[in-house]
Amino acid sequence: MELLLAALFCTSIAGLSATKPTVNCSSTFPSTKLSPNYNETIAHAIHSMTVEGLKLFNSKATEINFVPTVNQDVFSYQPILEHAPRDGFGNDFHTRTMNVVDKILSTLGNSKDGLGPHWSAIERVAHIFHMQDLWERIKATEWPKVQQTPPSDEVCTCLSSVDFNGIKDAVGWVANHYKTGTPITLLNRPIPKLTDATAWSVWKNRLLHYYTPEAMRDAATYLYCVSKFW
Ligand SMILES: *[C@@H]1O[C@H](CO)[C@@H](O)[C@H](O)[C@H]1NC(C)=O
Ligand SMILES: *[C@@H]1O[C@H](CO)[C@@H](O)[C@H](O)[C@H]1NC(C)=O
Questions:
Q1: To pair with 155 at 20 to 30 A between CA atoms, which of 70, 101, 164, 193?
Q2: How far apart are CA 191 and CA 189, in angstroms?
Q3: In this predicted model, what pLDDT tens digit does every residue of 1-32 receive, in sequence order?
């Protein structure tokens, strides 16, 4: 599928070339109204995506889903996975929430939960529930609009070609920065450790950065396009 997309893309837009062509879906298809920084809004929404998260949008999602994510083992030789993995939440406890907390605390210290070694337990909890919260918000607000007015096949080819449109590079940016810190946005701003209410007010503001209608529409449009391949 990737080869097909890449081939389609090279021929139709960038011309056949040995070097990696960069395309900009927002300037190539301005009528789609993607944000100029769609690479960052989309990479933020998907960097820790899971099969279960994708099923929120389309129940046909499987482990072959073409959604690039940060490798759970951020120091792996392969920092980006081609496909979002399963979430691996267990069922020892009764509610899903407690099983998520169990998963987070059970992998504390081995830095193989997709966030690297720098996140405290409470920062990990905030991150995982923030991402699920964002996915649910996208599903509730922008997803129905994208279903109603879907992007064209050409736009979908552009958005799905993550090797060429900057999205995979931006997921790589996240993977890279998890090695040294706890980035919340892709804006490269310093963030305090989450130890008190003052720090939380900074975190909260930062976590809400990509909840704008524009950022959520970018993510919904991308998810609509990639889900056509499931
Ligand atoms: C796309 O092009 C616009 C307008 O030139 C620019 O502002 C934006 O940064 C570019 N975005 C990407 C992802 O390359
Ligand atoms: C997103 O695209 C813009 C425009 O090409 C670029 O300046 C920026 O560095 C990209 N962001 C990431 C995190 O790759």
A1: 70
A2: 6
A3: 444 444 444 444 444 445 666 899 999 999 99
The answer, yes or no, to whether any atom of ligand 1 lies below 6 A from the CB of 181, is no
- Three-state DSSP class for 81? strand
Ligand 2 centroid distance, CA of 68 (Å): 16
d(CA 227, CA 206): 28
CB under 8 Å to 193, separation ≥6 — which residues? 120, 123, 199
Distance CA 211, CA 184 (A): 13
Q: Model's pTM, two decimal places?
A: 0.91
pLDDT greater at residue 11 or residue 151 = 151
Structure tokens at 201: 């007010």
Q: Which residue has the tokens 């690479």?
A: 39
pLDDT value of residue 19: 61
Q: Which two tokens stand for residue 75?
A: 């120091």
CA-based nearest residue to 71, from 118, 121, 115, 109:
115
Query: Of 137, 156, 150, 129, which Cα lies nearest the Cα of 216?
Result: 137
Whether ligand 1 lies within 6 angstroms of the CB of 35 is answered as no
Q: Which of 71, 101, 55, 229 is nearest to 153 (CA)?
A: 229
166 — alpha (psi -120 to 50), left (phi > 0) or beta?
left
Tokens (6 digits) for 74: 């951020």
Question: Cβ(165) to ligand 2 under 6 A?
Answer: no
Extract the tokens encoding 168. 């995979």
Q: How far apart are CA 117 and CA 108, in angstroms?
A: 9
